[in-house]
Each structure stands twice: as C-alpha cells, then as structure tokens.
Amino acid sequence: MALTSPACPSDRQLPTLRGDLRRAIPDAALALALAGIVYSLLIARVRAGVDPASLEMPAMMRSGGIWPYSLSQAVGWAALLWSWLTILLGVSLPIWGRQGRPKMRELAERLHRSTSLTVVGLMVAHAILLTGDKMGDTLVTVFVPWTTSYAPGLFPQALGILSFYLAVLFGLSFYLRNRIGLRSWQLLHRYFIPAVYVLAVWHTFLYGSDVRALNVMGVMLWLFQLPILATFCIRIVGAKRWSPP
C-alpha cells in the first residue's frame, strides 16, 4: 500500500510486489515488536483495573475476551503508527527530489513501500483478532461494513473497514501503475490515498476506548498529526517556489 504518490522509478529497476514483500519482513517484525510492547502495557492496565475497555465492557472481561481485544488494540496502534510513517514518508518524497538528494528519496521510497505493505498486514490482524473478544464479532462483521450487532459501533467500524479496503485497492495499484497509466495512478494517490489515513484516524477517535476521552493518548494522537501537516505545508511551499513562472 502506498498511502501517497511516490514517483514511479521508471528509469530504474521497477519494484515488484514479491520483492517488496520480502524487504518488508524486517519492517513487519519491528511493527509486531511494538505491538507486543503496547499489548503488555494494555494488559497491565487491565490487571490494575483501569483499562477503559474492561470497564466499559465487563462481560468481555468475565468471558476472557479482553485478552484478544487488547491484542487487537495493540496491533491497531501499530497499524496507525505505521500508517503515519507511510504518509510522512510519502509526503516528503518531492521535498527530497527538489533538494537534489536522490539517495534520500530512493531510501524514502523503499521505506514507503515496505511500511505500506506492513500496514495492510497489521490491519488484517487487527480485524481478525476482534473475532476472539467474545462480543459477537465474526469474520463477516469485521470485514463487511454495517453488519455488526453493536449499534454504537456501526459507523466507527464501517470507517475502519472502508479504510482497509481503500488501502488494499490503492496500495496494490502501485504495482499496476503501468497498466492503469502513470498519470492516472499519480492523481489517484495524490487525492485519494490521504483519505485512507483520515478514515483510520477517525475510526480510532470514535471507536478507540482508550482515546475517546481527551486523555494523554488522545492528545498524543492529535499532536502526532502536526509533523504531517508541517511536511505537507513544506511540500506546497516548495512546489510554488520551484514551479516555473
């Protein structure tokens, strides 16, 4: 998944999905390690009796479903952070190009693709793990919008599911860019891929029991958007500065 529009390296060896999947293994391992750390913190809060999810859904706590739910939360946080990295890398690509740093741009492109693929894998794991929380979720409810029986979660869950499908669709389009046309692919990514990230963040704010209240994690999530906005502004200013009269 490419969440923004890296330039097509038509003058170099074209990346392939198989090759990028292989290069994404260390990246995915790091994301899973982070998810493990977050899971440990969440479980510590559950055992201390201060976890919002366990307090809001005591039936899940009694049934033992809090453990897969907390793991799903942890993987979801890793997916959100990796989405943030992917967006940040993608937005920065033109900046490196305009500054005449091809090596940095090439590195950012490579990381951009690997983090994108990792995000898709994390999103799949995040959804599937919810089926183990014993609150009625099935593979249908976590992959088909508007099917959950939990009424307050209808809209937030639909946002997350839509974000997932758009991520897969637009991400895989990178490897089909020569078939759909480079110009069409660039426009698609430039104007629609940011929506994937926006939907994911929106889903988190509405559905995440640990950020719905404006607590430390909620404030941090807002603050994390500042680097993306700053980089995007630098990109716009740079484009105007370097554009021909």
Order of helices and strands: HHHHHHHHHHHH
The level of helicity is: over 70%
The tally of beta strands, per DSSP, is: 0
Q: If you average the pLDDT, what whole number results?
A: 83
Task: Give your account of this protein's structure.
This protein has 12 helices and no strands. It is mainly alpha-helical. Helix 2 crosses helix 6, helix 5 packs antiparallel against helix 6 and helix 5 packs antiparallel against helix 10. 36% of the residues are buried.
Features:
12 helices; 0% strand; mainly alpha; 245 residues; disordered N terminus; single chain
Provide a brief overview of the structure:
The chain has helices at residues 17-23, 25-48, 52-56, 58-63, 66-98, 102-129, 139-143, 154-173, 177-180, 182-207, 216-223, 225-242. By secondary structure, the protein is mostly helical.
Question: What is the fold's blueprint, element by element?
Answer:
Elements: H1 17-23, H2 25-48, H3 52-56, H4 58-63, H5 66-98, H6 102-129, H7 139-143, H8 154-173, H9 177-180, H10 182-207, H11 216-223, H12 225-242
Helix pairs in contact: 2-5, 2-6, 5-6, 5-10, 5-12, 6-8, 8-10
